[in-house]
Design brief:
Strand order of the largest sheet: 2-8-7-6-5-3-4
CATH architecture of the largest domain: 3-Layer(aba) Sandwich
CATH topology of the largest domain: Aspartate Aminotransferase, domain 2
Number of strands: 12
Largest sheet: 7 strands, mixed
Helix content: 40-55%
CATH class of the largest domain: Alpha Beta
Radius of gyration: 21 Å
CATH superfamily of the largest domain: Type I PLP-dependent aspartate aminotransferase-like (Major domain)
Amino acid sequence: MNLKPSKNLEMLPPYLFTKINQLKKEAYEKKLDVIDLGMGNPDHPTPAHIVDRLCDTVKHHKNTHRYPQAKGMPKFRKAVSQWMSKRFGVDIDPENEVLSLIGSKEGIAHLCMAYLNPGDIALVCDPAYPSHFNGPILAGAKIHSMPLLAKNNYLPDFTKIPQNVLKKAKIMFLNYPNNPTAAIVEDNNFWNEAINFCKKNNILLVSDNAYSEITFGDYRAPSIFEFEGAKDVALEFHSFSKSFNMAGWRLGWVCGSKKLLYPLEKLKSFIDYGSPTFMQLAGVAALLGDDSPVREIANTYQRRMKKLSNGLNKLGYNAPQTKATMYVWAEFPPELKKEGSLKLCEDLLRKTGVAISPGIGFGKHGEGFARISLVTHDRRFHDALLRIAQWTKNYKK
């Protein structure tokens, strides 16, 4: 037999983290002491009260082992509504404006399948979280890249999108606090501009707000629904993975108007049964419980960010301190950049055991950079910097 996968699947490059994992496997086989700063995979455990709720539910409430409600159980959707009100001051109808997800990554991919047709265009930031461009490609759509450049504070310039693109554009993805650049929106007029732009051009605005709670100091990320007119045009995705160290639990939600949510709800009803009920009840405990663990998680990332940023800057990298996320977006020294970020990251891992993500894996405008995840014990960053320092010195020779 000569069976081939779909053309859409073949259009995708190898998944970035699959390549990194293969290189890590080779490093382990060589007995290297691997410091894994590649994937944004939290290293601390899920807060105890969330785990306790899960265990109690699984043990004592056997009905939660049955098929869940595809759109999410009422108690979960109500908890989301209460959390959105408390955190952002926005009103979300739990009955019609919340949909549970098996993680926001799943939701974004399925949203593309629900909305995009072959020939449609998705407006995607570059660099971007890979699902923002992989999802549209799998749905058969085309990508128009919106460059994120340091000189523009890593914000897209909507005026640079050609009219012939806008005629076919159907979805725009925005992600702030941003993965991979760790950028935030300093001037909230940007959100008003984005909302008005998408209204004018009949484009669904997708706000991927997975890092809303990983913020530092006095900065707090907003919800898009804090801005007038957002419900007419926008959906917002949230995840438990980063805020509550629940990456492996696969739980999230999307909220927005009933009209905009319905296509995704309909699609998911044919494809999956939603997140398990016992998982959703643990999510309720996360949303309505003590929020001090969330601040502790953010404080941990801030502490690590400062140490890594300061250390890399001393080595000739351009790694600004950030106000949010669990990443440092580091620009390689000029004399190294010509080698290409993929080659540099592969060489670093093979020779030192330090795994970081090449910027090119997030889009062509990520070339020359690396995304470094803050996901190992504080003491290990000292070791990582020592190895990067020696590797950088040797590579420059």
